[in-house]
Amino acid sequence: MAAGAGGRNVPLCSAEQRDGMRRDGGGDPYWSRPESRVWTVMLLLGTCLLYCARVTVPICAIALSTHFDWDKKQSGIVLSSFFWGYCLTQIIGGHISDQIGGEKVLLLSASAWGFLTVLTPLLTHLTSAHLIFMTCSRFLMGLLQGVYFPSLASLLSQKVRESERAFTYSTVGTGSQFGTLVIGGAGSLLLDWYGWESVFYFSGLLTLLWVYCTCKYLLSEKELIIPIDYFIRSLSITKQTKVPWKQLFRKAPIWAVIIAQLCTASTFFTLLSWLPTFFKETFPESKGWVFNVVPWLVAIPTSLFSGFLSDHLINQGYKTITVRKFMQVIGSGVSSIFALCLGQTSSFCKAIVFASASVGLQTFNHSGISVNVQDLAPSCAGLLFGVICVYLAGHLIETTGSWISVFNLVAAVNSIGLCAFLMFGAAQRVDTDSAYMDL
C-alpha cells in the first residue's frame, strides 16, 4: 500500500504514529478532513503547474515556428513528441507509487520537469539542431510527466473515501484547466512582452517553488527519505504485491474503461495542443489572451460542479456505475457535438462559445471514467491507470489534414470510447478474489 502523507500543520498524530499505523495495517487509512483539504489544494496547484509546463510549447508554437523556421509538419513533430514519451512511464510510475507512495513520485517528477522547463531556453543556444533538441526535450518532458496522474490515482484511491473521491478527483483535476488558464493568460502576455523564453522560465520556476513548499510544509523529513534498497525493491513485482493481471484483463469493465480513457485522453490532448494554432490561423486578428483563457476559465466551474453532482447522486442512493455513465455521456457525447460545431463556424465569437462548451463539458470525464479506475481496482489504481495511455494522441495530431477533419476525428474517437463504456462499464471491484459489493 502506498505510504500516505499527513499534513504537518494538522495535529492529529505524529509522523511516527502514522507510519506505524500503515505498517501494521491498523487505524483509518484515509486522510482526515483537514488533511484532505490541505492535500486537495496542494495537488490542485500541482496539477495546475503540470499543465503550465505542458502547454508552454502549444502556447509558443507559432513563435517557435517563426524563430526556428519550422513548417506545420515540423511543429506537429515537436507537439506530438510529448505524448510519445508520456505513455511510456505511466505503468512503472503507477506501480512505484503503489509501493512507496504517490506523493513521493509526484514530487520527484515535478522537480525534474521544473528544472527541464527552466533549462530548455538556455540549452537552445548551445545547439544548432533546434528541431531535434526541442523534440527530445518534449519527449523527456512527457516521460517525466507521465507518472503524475498514475501517482495521483494511486494516492487518492488509498487516502480518500469513495463517497468523497469523485469530488476530490474532479477538484484536483480542475488544475488542468486552471493551469491552462494561467499559462494561457500570463503566458500570452509574457510572450508578447518578453518573448517565448520567458514563458518557460515562468512555468519552471513556479513548479520548483511548489515542490519546495510541499516538502517543507506537508511532509516530515522522515517521509521525504526513500531508502535506496526499498526503492529498488519497488521496481519489481513481488508475490505479495503482484497485480492480478489475468483476473483483471478477463473483465469486460477493465477493457471498457481502458478504451474509453484512451479515447478521451487522445481527444483532449489533441484539442489542448492545437486549439491555440487553430484560433491564430483561422482568426489572425484575435488576441491570444482571449482564446487561450476563456475556454479554460469556463472549464473550472464545470469540473467542480461535475464532482459535486456525482458525489451528491451517489449519496442519494443512485448506483455508482449509473452516475459514472451519466457523467461520461456529458463528458464524451455532448462535448463532441460542440467540437463538431467548432469546425464549421466562421465566427470568432461562436468559435469561443463552442470551444468553451466542448472543453468545459469534457471535465465531466473526471467524475466518469477517470474515477472509475479507482472503483474497479483501488489496490493497484496507479498501475492500472498506466495502461490507459495516450498513445493515439501523437498519431491523431500528425495525421490531421484540415481543421474540420480534426474536430470530426475528435467526435468520432469520443463516440467509440463512450459506446464501449456504456455497454461494458461497471463499478464492481475486480482486483480481489473476495466477494465484492455491486455498486
Describe this structure in words.
- The protein is mostly helical and 439 residues long.
- Helix content is 76%, strand content 0%.
- It is globular.
- The N terminus and C terminus are likely disordered.
Order of helices and strands: HHHHHHHHHHHHHHHHHHHHHHH
Give the helix/strand class: mainly alpha
The percentage of residues in β strands lies in under 5%
> What is the 3D shape?
globular
Mean residue pLDDT: 76
Supply the number of helical segments: 23
Distance between the termini: 23 Å
Q: What is the number of strand segments? A: 0
Low-pLDDT sequence parts: 1-26, 378-397, 433-439
Largest sheet: none
Radius of gyration: 21 Å
Helix content: over 70%
Give the topology.
Blueprint (H helix, E strand, L loop, with lengths): L14 H10 L8 H22 L1 H4 L1 H8 L3 H15 L3 H11 L1 H23 L5 H16 L2 H12 L2 H33 L1 H22 L3 H4 L3 H7 L10 H5 L2 H31 L5 H4 L2 H22 L4 H25 L3 H15 L6 H8 L4 H7 L3 H8 L4 H22 L15
Short précis:
The chain has 439 residues and is mostly helical.
What key phrases describe this protein's structure?
439 residues; 76% helix; mainly alpha
